[in-house]
Amino acid sequence: MSRSFNFCSGPAALPEAVLKKAQSELLDWHGAGVSVMEMSHRSSEFTSILESAKTRLIRLLDIPSNYEVLFVQGGASTLFAQIPANFIADHTSACYLDTGAWSAKAIKEAKKYTNVVVSGSTKDKNYTTVPAWDSLNLDENAAYLHLTPNETIGGVEFDDLPETDLPIIADLSSTILSRSIDVSKYGMIYAGAQKNVGPAGVVICIVRKDLLERCDNDRLPSTWSFANLAKNNSMINTPPTFAIYLADLVFEWLEGQGGVEAIEKVNEAKAERLYRAIDESKLYSNPIELKYRSRMNVPFVLADESLESLFLQESEEAGLKTLAGHRSVGGMRASIYNAMPMEGVDALIKFMQDFEMRHYGA
Q1: Which residues does the annotation say bind L-glutamate (predicted)?
Q2: Is it true that domain 23-256 has CATH number 1.10.3720.10?
Q3: What is the reported pLDDT for 327?
Q4: 303 appears as a binding residue in the annotation
């Protein structure tokens, strides 16, 4: 069997070592005689998996003790509505930064629950940069400030945060565990697992405990209340057991790589190498302002758009999968999450250079 290099933005590639371990345990987990997919979520076996996943994540991100770690169903898109439903409480507004397609979707959902203050937007710049923090329109009486530090579709990423006393809620779906962060600067972090953590089906939520006091359990659906989820150890109902199990295996793998600081250095090197190849090319270009280029999602366009379908056809044949850009923006996109090895980036660069020489450089 020959595995391809999968550049999909999500569900994304998983570390091969993780897949092999899951394969070896698929029929019989640690002598239990059943698969994780078959065991009761209330069993001591699964409870140990859940606790292992929480403990590893806390260790990897150095999560302070005044935060809860939750594993939530529904995908990050569900949390676009779940977050304002939980945290608006007696506030009359929430602040949002509009930096790309996903933050725009979050804004649309939040408007169903409260007045949304768009504190800064780069829509007029085609989402190729980030608003200047000193220009933001922040309502300091708002419930929170929501932002998306990495826009998966557009390829914009930032790692600094605005100065504000508002709780900052961040969608880190594409960047969690790819770079070092100070969790204490956030009121809440949430991330769909299907990019850097595991398969689709579970969202990691890291919530400061004082914010849970805002959750109105009498009004909220029981499975939507973050406070209720915390009280019940993420098991109000049957959680996505296999997705949590695989997340734990990914956390274990990441610890074996040296943790977040170590993988961040690898990610920096991968992104630098790919962007350099794009910048040195006459065929390929990246539209994002230099200092806000994403390490995880690298979009690029071809100077000759008529070559796009041929590029995708030949790259697929070369074992380089899922390089088409999002349907809303077109072009190409290479997602190079933690599980993408440097060999995959090198293979992509070699193909891109060869393709340019054969079809554009002559």
Answers
A1: 9, 42
A2: no
A3: 77
A4: no
